[in-house]
Amino acid sequence: MFAPEGDAPMDAPAAGAPFAPAADALIQGSALAAVPGALADASLSPVARVTRRLSAESPRIIANWALRVANLPAFRAVPDLGLAQLQDAVPELLAASLTAIATPDPDLDLEPFARAEEVARHHAHARTRAGFGIDVVLAELQQLRAEIAAAAWRIADDEPSLDSLPREVLDRLYRVTDGVILAAARAWVAARLGPDQTDPA
What we know:
Elements: H1 23-29, H2 46-56, H3 58-69, H4 73-76, H5 83-87, H6 90-101, H7 111-129, H8 134-158, H9 167-193
Helix pairs in contact: 1-3, 2-8, 3-8, 6-7, 6-9, 7-9, 8-9
């Protein structure tokens, strides 16, 4: 449902909708900054080149993500929803997820994965306190994964040294985001059950 093809963002909400920011404003306001320096480095592996460029494209990923999830009915129903409330911890979650994706040996270095899941739990708790359902949390995280994947394919198309997107990038992306989505779902359920009950998951 939330995995449109290509990179072009959906139309902004119609006039009178609660949230219709311009992409430029979202990029300017993102908590993530582009990685400085040259992006192309022949000494890097194909996977490293893609993950490095993904980090540099973080503001664009967040901008496209925000334009899409702003159209979710649950967010459109909040008249005074601002950019900070919409994004919550998603910029930090993207940064943590990209760090985990870029980890050279994910089987040995689990800390980046744990950090990404920790941020996902924090985000889910915030959404629970704000009254949003688990369907909203899952939809926005699935959309974040779709935006990262779209950016990765775009980078592969633009990078002359790559014949195609390395399969390892997609494998790492799904491994990281599967863990993030599961951690967020469990955190949402635990927050709804309360401190005196046990999450059955």
